[in-house]
Amino acid sequence: MGEFAQVGESEVEPLARLTEVSKRFPGVNAVTEVSLDIFGGEVHVFAGENGAGKSTLMKILAQVDRPTSGRVEVAGAPVTHRGPAEARRLGVAMVHQEFALAPDLTVAENLFIGQEPGGFGWIRRGRERALARELLRRVGLGVRETRAVRSLSTAEQQRVEIAKALAVDARLLILDEPTASLTERESRELFTVLGELTAQGMAVCYISHRLDEIFAIGDRVTVLRDGSVVTTVPVGGMDESALVRSMVGREVDDLYPRTFREPGPVRLEARGLERPGALRHAGLTVRAGEIVGLAGLVGAGRTELARSVFGAEPATAGSIRLDGRPVRIRRPRDAIAAGIGYLTESRKSDGLALQLGVDVNITLGRLPMRGGLIDLRGQRRVAEHYRESLGIRVPRVDRAVSLLSGGNQQKVVLARILRTGAEVLLFDEPGRGMDVAAKSEMFQQLDQLAAEGRAIVLISSYLPELMNMCDRILVLRAGRVVGELEREEYSEQRIVALATGAGGEHEQRD
Amino acid sequence: MSSGTEAETGGRQRLWSPVRVSGAVSRLAAAGALIVIFVVLSFVAPSFLTADNLFNLGSQTSVKAVMAVGVTLVIITGGIDLSVGSVAALSGVVGVLLMAEHGLNPLLGVLGGLAVGATAGLVNGLLVSRVGLPPFIATLGMLSVARGVVLITTGAVAVFGAPDSFRVLGQGVLGPVPVPVLLIVFVALAGHVILTRTRLGRYAYVLGSNPEAARLSGVAVSRHITAVYVLSGMFAGLGGMIAASRINSGQPNFGEGLELDVIAAVVIGGASLFGGRGTILGSLIGAFLVAVIRNGAVQLGIGTFYQNVLIGLIIWLAVWWDRYQRRKFNNEETG
Ligand SMILES: Nc1ncnc2c1ncn2[C@@H]1O[C@H](COP(=O)(O)OP(=O)(O)OP(=O)(O)O)[C@@H](O)[C@H]1O
Ligand SMILES: [Mg+2]
């Protein structure tokens, strides 16, 4: 990477060329007359607000979606939009956020679905495995090709997806927010792999909301706003604030608006929570007005801790006190009744009712009732309120959530938990998929909630978020809390050392 | 945060949005088909458009329509109720027996029939929500159990002897309007209000769309799932009582295969067997469509066998049309 910068406009044939591509959905111009060249060897980053049209544009390139108008060419030949299979034949592969893997098949089998080596209906399994091993090596994945995909971590599955793209000799790889559910280290590994691939002449289109990674791996960046290209520039020609300005159209002065205050009395106290295979004597206390961060690797038990406090998967042992009183939480309903709210880690699988309206989803936690019946006007009012305050991009609040962009879906989940008015709030990766401005707005809300005396737990894989927003950070590893850091003790190194168990820090055992 | 989307595209000026309409597309299509078939039948079958036959049609439909309301609720949660035909027979028989042999007055007899249906529904609901049986299995079992109980109690012989006033339910008129038609209106309104304005209805949609999201939002999942099957059983019971009143007896063989017509009505009306989608109005139109086809076929002298083929074709057509429209509306700008 990096060497790309001197490639000019005319010298090299573009790998892909978009000409005045537009895509309209009912009530929305998702993409408007975008013209763009993608060159081999570059990491081309796409940035922009939630709903700016990034995913839609990439889906058009990958032939998942058909443009309303405009032309797409790959390697000089016009694209017919016959579908993803056709795109693959042309060497374009897209890794979606929801992976398209068959969880019960092995890694090797997944890599060659639809083009198994062999013939006459037979699969040459030995050859398949050998080819698979070679592909796994190229994507730097050290798992056996005979493992079932189900047993792999998110990061590993993602790497399998990339290997799948290599299996069809893709020359253009599209990644839509690939690091949203990866840890720092996994992200860095991914970047290394992408660096190797681009060095071999592959082009990578990369959607991201994370400024640091845009600058770390991007060669050029295209900023979209309201479906149109604002600018396409070499990454070196722009600094963070200029990038943000061109995305949002204004300054975002404070990414992490937090006012630290003296915390009040303890509101949430969880002790000795156990859950076989997930939590080992884990606990936490949160005071009124505090935001307590949970750090750790994926699978370290952060989500499990929050979910057991919330009763989603209750602990088998341990105690929970709220405002000093012991409470028994066996299911989410108990937690909600006690005033605990939880924003789920994965909005699609257990957060949203995708086919239902934005309004229905927002009010689900607390239905506006009137005379024993649902107050439909009230529901609409509530939904409009959050659409305004969180900037949810949707033409009408009764539109199905499935039609919203990823970041806007996340805002719907956020709106629901804000609306419940819970006193103790557990936020599990609340900023996932949100753009910088929306995140800043969300953190503003968190700060406000804290100022009102609520107790807040924040889970994030992005350390700067935790370090800027939290009064304290607990670090988890293998289901237990292995360290607690006060604000003046924060450093990425320390947290990472605790999280990985390296660096010989003292473990806090009981 | 800026939000220029709607201002720039005129999304707000539009009075109706295609997305919203797409939900109603299958309903519109079914309603259109209903009208066409109705008009055609009026011309080709002279006996079709007679007061007698329409009266008959109305009360024939009422059994299916009333039952379809309950099944709609179940299907919206992503479940299915295969037992409604058997449960209707059980309710009819028990209801008539209560009046004939225990001297209950017709009102109590009918309520007794509803209670029997609700109880069967409760068993279904508990099997699904507490025991964890798949709805298909739970209600398939009930289909068999309820039918068995009917045959045991009656010895496979029809039961008679309800007081004359019981006929009002299925044969009475209020002014020019048959009582069963009034019952359709009443039950449909109730069903509509339940679905759109109560917690139960709202949670039915959410449970059908994403049960885990419902649970994490504090929805009492088991209770609401159970309630939906109870209502389905109760409406099946009402259907059974209407049918019993129409023939003035409890028939042990009543309603065999009826569940298929009812489910067909709901699906033709736009509900999704995967859950999360469906409306009372749609199911009602579906029920009328099925009933008109069966009635019209009789008028034209077409046998049941051919009617079955016809209804199967219409199910295919309705669901295909629905999917086709949905895909189109979701991906392409129209109008
Ligand atoms: N199938 C669809 N039907 C209607 N509108 C859609 C559909 N798909 C996308 N949109 C709309 O198109 C716009 C662009 O969406 P897109 O997913 O491309 O945004 P994005 O830039 O990827 O945003 P995010 O950063 O939140 O992922 C949004 O307003 C979205 O609501
Ligand atoms: Mg997106």
Explained architecture:
The complex is a heterodimer of chains A (510) and B (335). With 510 residues, chain A is α/β, with parallel strands linked by helices. In chain A, 33% of the residues lie in helices and 25% in strands. Chain A has 17 helices and 22 strands. Chain A has helices at residues 54-61, 84-89, 107-111, 125-138, 154-167, 184-199, 211-217, 240-248, 302-310, 332-338, 347-351, 358-363, 376-390, 406-420, 436-451, 463-469, 492-500, and strands spanning 16-25, 28-38, 43-48, 69-74, 77-78, 92-95, 172-176, 203-207, 220-225, 228-234, 266-275, 279-287, 291-296, 317-322, 325-327, 340-343, 369-370, 373-374, 424-428, 455-459, 472-477, 480-486. In chain A, a hairpin with a 2-residue loop joins β17 (369-370) and β18. The longest helix of chain A has 16 residues, at 184-199. The radius of gyration of chain A is 24 Å and the shape is globular. Chain B has one domain: Orthogonal Bundle (ABC transporter involved in vitamin B12 uptake, BtuC). Chain B has helices at residues 5-9, 18-44, 51-76, 84-102, 106-131, 135-154, 168-171, 179-197, 199-209, 211-216, 221-247, 258-268, 280-299, 304-331, and strands at residues 173-174, 177-178. In chain B, α12 (258-268) crosses α13 and α12 runs parallel beside α14. Chain B is globular. The interface between A and B is large, with 55 and 43 residues. The structure holds adenosine-5'-triphosphate (ATP) and magnesium ion (MG).
